[in-house]
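OP here, attaching both records as promised.
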Amino acid sequence: MAIREVLGLYRDLDSAVAAADALREAGFSRSEFEVLSNAPYPEGTFGEESGIHRLFVFPLIGAACGFAAGLLITGGTQLSFPLLTGGKPLLSIPPMIIIMYEGTMLGALIFTVLGVLFESRLPWIGRALYDPRITAGYIGILVRTAPEREAKAIEALRKANPEDILTENGTVGKQPARS
């Protein structure tokens, strides 16, 4: 299914918030548009709901995998090459603890980095509509929607008095064309 992009540019925060509200009133869900800016705004500024963060799960899974790998390496090595010395037990726990600890920390670290990349949706492979004025301080509202809803998105963005509206085909302008 083809997805079309529409980018509305706003000079101030109030206009961008009004555009987000107009999009919601027009029936667009929050997952269909995102806010682009050069400044971080507090969560909820544009009416978005706080997301469910699952980042804490990644280090736990990584730590469990690292611990299991450390246990398999140390235990497997000692069981594969049994060396009985002086009636001591075959599995020597103190050296195993060091390797299992290092495996746990390494697994947690690697999975944390992978989790941050996954939760940040990186790397972004697609090419999104962008305007350099966003870097200069404008706020962009990027709408990704089906082609039949593109005109509805443009109309909703126009209600908030944008500086400009861009589509994949070029600039639409902030006012509707007169017939």
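Record two, same layout:
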Amino acid sequence: MTKINSLYLLLAVALVQLYVPAKMVVDNETIVRNGTVHKFKTAPIDPSDPFRGRYILLNFEASSVNVINPDEWDNNEEVFLQLTHDESGFSEIAGVSKTLPDGISDFVKAKVSYVTYDSIPKIMIDYPFARFYMEESKAPKAEEIVFKAAIDTNSITYAIVYIKNGTAVVTDVMVNNHSLKELATGADEK
């Protein structure tokens, strides 16, 4: 390989390394600017390990769907969740299908985590937005806030999720209508 070919190859690799993360950022910004906002109420977070590295692991109350025949569903299968809002404005699952819903714009792609065979069979949902990444320096304070919110039964915690064409982006986690990002920096302390 000549020096010129090696230089072109190195340049091509460098361009790909810049293109991939830039495309991810642009795609996420497009969803946030043009997508539909949803509020997913979070369930209590496992107090033994709510953080792994620099993100918060989110569990959602809307995490299961009743099904008639559990044998029709497989673990790790991609599904489409039709979404709606409850009377308080929080997102709920209105239906599930294996195919892209026709004429419905409010849906998100997810996966079947596992299937239960209880008296009322259910599929448990694995959302693609179950991680909320934070700046590392804010993580310990955010962890403390989340622990306190999980213990307090009067506390309401939810994720702000923008959804467009089945793809979702989490922009913030709210604790009693206050941004976790701001609470973790002390900007929203009372």
